[in-house]
Amino acid sequence: MNQPRPSPETSVRIALVTGANRGIGFEVCRQLAERDFVVLLTARDAAKAKTAARKLANVGTVDPLALDVADLSSIKKAAAEVASRYGCLDVLVNNAGINYDTWQTVENANINGTVTETTQRTC
User: Fold this and answer.
1) Does the structure show a pLDDT above 60 at 111?
2) Quick one: 33 exposed, middle or buried, by C-beta within 10 A (0-12, 13-18, 19+)?
3) 51-55, 58-62, 70-74, 116-120: lowest mean pLDDT where?
4) What is the pTM of this model?
5) SS3 of 99, please?
6) What are the structural domain ranges in the chain?
7) Phi, psi angles (nearest 5°) of residue 67
């Protein structure tokens, strides 16, 4: 991520997609980049995010960002990075899957970190 948030006079929009180094998330990134969004493609592994972002370089502006939605410190680090470089997001796509313990169900899996950072970061 190497560009600052554009001024309000421009129409550039910032989108972050979690779990985006492959599959549906990757395709969402491609389509957003085609629509002139600056796309933050995230993955747990920074190298995988970088590789995937490079594959979309000819489509539009796609920047890699390491983000593990199950790790509160990773979420806070990514949120701080986004805030410092762009101010805020226009679009957030929570695509990343989570792994939960066998005693948990989908309804009670701990996604508090993601929810907290999503709801506390507003423009």
Assistant:
1) no
2) buried
3) 116-120
4) 0.77
5) coil
6) 13-97
7) -160, 120
Q: How far apart are CA 74 and CA 57, in angstroms?
A: 25
Structure tokens at 86: 């762009």
Q: For 25-83, give the DSSP string.
A: HHHHHHHHHHTTEEEEEEESSHHHHHHHHHHTTTTS-EEEEE--TT-HHHHHHHHHHHH
Q: Mean pLDDT, the chain, as a whole number?
A: 82
Q: Note every long-range contact of 78-81, with CB atoms under 8 Å and residues 24 or more positions apart, other chains counting.
A: 78/42, 79/117, 79/121, 81/1
Average pLDDT, integer, range 12-16: 92
Distance CA(51)–CA(115), nearest Å, equals: 27
Q: Which two tokens stand for residue 115?
A: 């929810």
Q: Higher-confidence residue: 85 or 105?
A: 85
CATH entry 3.40.50.720 includes domain 13-97: yes
pLDDT of residue 49: 97
